[in-house]
Amino acid sequence: MAAAAATAVDGDERVMAAAQQILMSLGTSDETMKKDMLFILKSLGTSSSSADDRFSSISTSSDPPPAPSDADIRLDAAANLILRWDSSPGSLPWDDSPDEASAYLSAVDDVISAVEDGSGGDRAESLLQQAMQRLEDELRHLLVRNTVPLDIDRLYGSIRRLSLSFASSTADDISTVDDFESSSIDDGRSTLDHRVSGSDDFSAVDLMLPGSVDDLQAIANRMIRAGYGMECLQAFASVRRGIIDECLQVLGIDRLSIEEVQRIEWRSLDERMKKWVRAVKVSVRVLLAGERRLCDLVFAEADSEACFVETAKGCVVQLLNFGEAIVVGRRSSEKLFRILDMYDALNDVLGDLQGLFPGETGDFLIEEAEKILEGLGDAARGTFAEFESAVKNETSRKPIQGGEIHPLSRYVMNYVKLLVDYSDSLNQLLEDQRLDGDNGGDGDENAQCTPLGRRLLSLISYLETNLDEKSKLYEDAAMGYIFLMNNVLYIVKKVKDSDLRTVLGDHWVRTRRGQVRQYATAYLRASWTKVLSYLKDEGIGSGGSSSSVSKVALKERFKSFNAGFEEVYRIQTAWKVPDEQLREELRISISEKVIPAYRSFLGRFGSHLEGGRHAGKYIKYTPDDLENHLSDLFEGSPGLMNHPRRKLSS
């Protein structure tokens, strides 16, 4: 009995050894499965002895195989977890159950280790491929789900910049007075969009939810370690490029070809240029700066610059393409301010771009940005020159009714006034340029001017020369002087009441005020010399005594004076002097010449007609009557002659 028992025990041991061998070949070390296999093997025979005989061929004469290693056990566990998630349609619960996500990442680490040390063989390689595909999908999922929407309202509230909007109905070059009259760069009609709140510091803006960055970094580190860095970079860049494209659309930047941009009518193009100016700053200092930070964090253990360039280059190229379309587009004066806005915006962020793309991989983008910046500068210079030419060669031949301010004066001075807002940029752009036969200065003052100041002096000089020619279109020389007074004074006031005074100087202002006084003197001479000539003593009689006065000549003198005064009144009440102070000064000057002369003449010779028949026919006015009538001049309303209190006697 004892021998039989010993034999049975020995048989059990051999059966166990055979079972272990089978289990090893099946790749499992589960203890429960061992027991189940032993039970099955034993049940195959009626006794341990028969089982021993039946499986004697399976048993070996050598020692039992070693137990599975810790690496094998970890790989088995990793395989179970990876395969389970591989068959799951959902993503890892990064937020809801971070422990599960962490367990998956640990399983990936075990697979990577097995591949690195070669212990896992083909099985580990296959598991690694499955895990990497899963991680790439998870990377895309996290990038999309955790993106922070662009808060455009808050960002626009942080941009500090003066924007100019011109609602001109035509993009044609200005060559006729109609173009100047239809332009919106006029008193009170130009639209200024001030956005002054907050600051330009956007460093606190996050493009991803902060908690997701660690998960992205964990995925990137494992893919890079496993040799899948390029796949990781491409997946990351692909998703982020799409998100940046969506942000550009929110900013109003559409993907347009150069040809499409050039076909856009001016009103729409003006709006697109304005949006581009805003978008450049937001794109560089918010979107791209945020992308750079994100790339540096996620790819801290790899080439983050290559990832950033791959992600951001499309955004930069799209913005620069629009700039190129403006550079090569048709030039017209109303575009100058938008071109300068674009120049300033790109110049302002160029340093930021150089900081974002410091390496060789981004050199081509910086070179392209510098090229577009230079092109915008050339476009601004060329547009400025074309505007000067348009002002110089404007040849309208239609006199302005009433001698009022010419639309050319309004347009040019409002245009020039706005140019001063771009003094820094224009001084830089115009520094090496001088006009042929520069005629814009007042002596040595011009030599001391800034580049912009010299060009503005020349531009206003062209305007003054043009206005002088237009004053000759009036048949009445006196009206030509009124026209010149109105326009020169308008120019002076625009300079005096703006930053133009700093650019052109007080001497320039004093010189033009002197011109206004000269024109006033010329007006008085042209308008009133003949009327006043009727109040002279010559031809009435010798010595002025009562006996020597010719009543016939005296009646003719009063009659001629009345007719002359009434003619001037009838004509010049229709003339217009918009400036209240100039209007009053002219009336005073006229009164100082006419009223004393009339009062004196009336005092010397009025008595010769008073008391006679029809005396009122010749002595129609008292000095006070004339004074009252003079107050009607230059109102631009000829109907005032019929005003009850102003009606001239018949």
Automatic annotation (TrEMBL):
Question: Where does the record place the region Disordered?
Answer: 47-70
What the entry lists under InterPro entries is as follows: Cullin_repeat-like_dom_sf, Exo70, Exo70_C
Q: Which Pfam family, an example, fits this chain?
A: Exo70_N
Any signal peptide, and if so, which residues? none
One cellular component (GO) term of this entry? exocyst
Highest rank taxon of the organism: Eukaryota
Question: Which parts of the sequence belong to the Exocyst complex subunit Exo70 C-terminal domain?
Answer: 274-632
Q: Give the function comment from the record.
A: Component of the exocyst complex.
Q: Which family does it belong to?
A: Belongs to the EXO70 family.
Instruction: Give the protein name, as stated in the record.
Output: Exocyst subunit Exo70 family protein
Source species of the chain: Acorus calamus (Sweet flag)
Ranked from the top, the taxonomy reads: Eukaryota, Viridiplantae, Streptophyta, Embryophyta, Tracheophyta
